[in-house]
């Protein structure tokens, strides 16, 4: 009896912890508070399937309790055999037809939503973005605006934005739970989906397909701003000057070190489109575009955007994102050199439209 009570207490504690931990999370990283069209449709399906499952559970439990009470073994009837229902056609039809109906109730709306979210008939009239998944970062090119960036995807609110997605290495999965569902990002075929955010804000995105040792750190952000602010951001990015001289002496020294260490072999510092097309014949850029690095919401996708974290990343990226393709691709930096390059990168701020202005 004592051992049984002990196991019950342990089970109760773990159940309580599960409920408490289920309430932990990051704002704008949940599918249960939809703030976009795709997430809204997914929420409808979640509620529908949950309602059906709860209904089935309740009905089964009611039948179970009635059976236990009504047909329990009674004193003096130990050898009594209840009426058998094997071969009862009416019952067999009922418990065959009901599950089929329930499956259809779930399947039909699911198929309709799937086709709805995959509809690209109006893509030519709206904003299109080529998305390239890499270990462990994301690249975004706006072919209509001749702008490219990485890690932070800017979109206008209240409008559909079509994403044409391809991977340069392994299979990834694009997921912004607050505003859209998931879509696999493959190496040989382009998958298309659209996203639409109802309100301004910074929405967290994740790679939802195990893609290597730093899969859990392959984060990105969707920055939803008003259509007017989006147009301003595009104009600002189109006018970036890669050859502009930094204002401070430290940043100027950092620019020289950036060029001397061949960082530009992998990283662009202007936002002009480079002809990167979503297709298997083109692997896209080697490293993230840095044209608006100073406005990024995170360093390396996961660190707070400050000078210290950027310096740590430059000195030892492997300790932060194991398996990344930046490690060992440039000469070892001293702490002072890393700090100067950080000074240079942090001042790359071509626009006043930033994650902070979007309400991060």
TrEMBL record:
The Cytochrome c domain, residue ranges: 249-349
Annotated stretches, region: Disordered: 313-334
Pfam families in alphabetical order: COX2, COX2_TM, Cytochrom_C
Main EC class the enzyme belongs to: translocase
InterPro entries, alphabetized: CcO_II, CcO_II-like_C, Copper_CuA, Cupredoxin, CuRO_CcO_Caa3_II, Cyt_c-like_dom, Cyt_c-like_dom_sf, Cyt_c_oxidase_su2
Superkingdom per UniProt: Bacteria
Entry keyword GTP-binding: no
Record domain Cytochrome oxidase subunit II transmembrane region profile: where: 23-121
Segments forming domain Cytochrome oxidase subunit II copper A binding: 124-236
Cellular localisation: Cell membrane; Membrane
Alphabetically ordered keywords of this record: Copper, Electron transport, Heme, Iron, Membrane, Metal-binding, Respiratory chain, Translocase, Transmembrane, Transmembrane helix, Transport
Signal sequence extent: none
Cofactor comment: Binds a copper A center.
Family matches, as PROSITE patterns: COX2 (PS00078), COX2_CUA (PS50857), COX2_TM (PS50999), CYTC (PS51007), PROKAR_LIPOPROTEIN (PS51257)
Residue spans crossing the bilayer: 45-71, 92-115
Documented EC number(s): 7.1.1.9
Membrane topology: Multi-pass membrane protein
Main location: membrane
Catalytic function, reaction form: 4 Fe(II)-[cytochrome c] + O2 + 8 H(+)(in) = 4 Fe(III)-[cytochrome c] + 2 H2O + 4 H(+)(out)
Family membership noted in the UniProt record: Belongs to the cytochrome c oxidase subunit 2 family.
PANTHER family given in the database record: CYTOCHROME C OXIDASE SUBUNIT 2, CYTOCHROME C OXIDASE, SUBUNIT II
Function recorded in the entry: Subunits I and II form the functional core of the enzyme complex. Electrons originating in cytochrome c are transferred via heme a and Cu(A) to the binuclear center formed by heme a3 and Cu(B).
Protein's name in the database: Cytochrome c oxidase subunit 2
Gene source species: Oceanobacillus locisalsi
Encoding gene, per UniProt annotation: coxB
């Amino acid at each position: 009896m004592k051992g049984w009570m002990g196991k019950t207490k342990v089970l109760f504690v773990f159940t309580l912890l599960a409920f408490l931990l289920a309430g932990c999370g990051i704002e704008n990283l949940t599918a249960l508070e939809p703030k976009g069209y795709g997430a809204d449709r997914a929420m409808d399906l979640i509620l529908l399937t949950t309602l059906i499952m709860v209904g089935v559970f309740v009905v089964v439990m009611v039948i179970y309790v009635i059976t236990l009470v009504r047909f329990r073994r009674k004193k003096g009837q130990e050898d009594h055999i209840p009426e058998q229902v094997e071969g009862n056609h009416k019952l067999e039809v009922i418990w065959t037809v009901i599950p089929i109906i329930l499956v259809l109730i779930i399947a039909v709306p699911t198929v309709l939503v799937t086709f709805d979210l995959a509809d690209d008939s109006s893509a030519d009239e709206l904003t299109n973005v080529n998305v390239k998944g890499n270990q462990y970062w994301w690249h975004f090119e706006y072919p209509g605006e001749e702008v490219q960036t990485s890690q932070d995807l800017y979109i206008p609110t209240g409008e559909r934005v079509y994403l044409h997605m391809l991977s340069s290495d392994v299979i990834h999965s694009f997921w912004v739970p607050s505003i859209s569902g998931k879509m696999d990002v493959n190496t040989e075929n382009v998958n298309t989906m659209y996203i639409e955010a109802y309100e301004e804000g910074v929405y967290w995105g994740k790679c939802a397909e195990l893609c290597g040792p730093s899969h859990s750190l392959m984060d990105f952000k969707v920055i939803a701003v008003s259509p007017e602010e989006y147009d301003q951001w595009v104009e600002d990015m189109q006018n970036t000057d890669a050859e502009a001289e930094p204002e401070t002496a430290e940043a100027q020294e950092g620019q020289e070190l950036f060029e001397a260490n061949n960082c530009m072999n992998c990283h662009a510092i202007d936002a002009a489109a480079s002809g990167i097309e979503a297709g298997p014949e083109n692997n896209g850029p080697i490293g993230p575009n840095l044209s608006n690095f100073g406005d990024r919401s995170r360093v390396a996708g996961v660190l707070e955007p400050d000078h210290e974290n950027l310096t740590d990343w430059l000195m030892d990226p492997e300790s932060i994102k194991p398996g990344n393709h930046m490690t060992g691709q440039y000469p070892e930096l001293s702490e002072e050199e890393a700090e100067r390059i950080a000074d240079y990168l942090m001042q790359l701020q071509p626009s006043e439209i930033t994650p902070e202005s979007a309400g991060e």
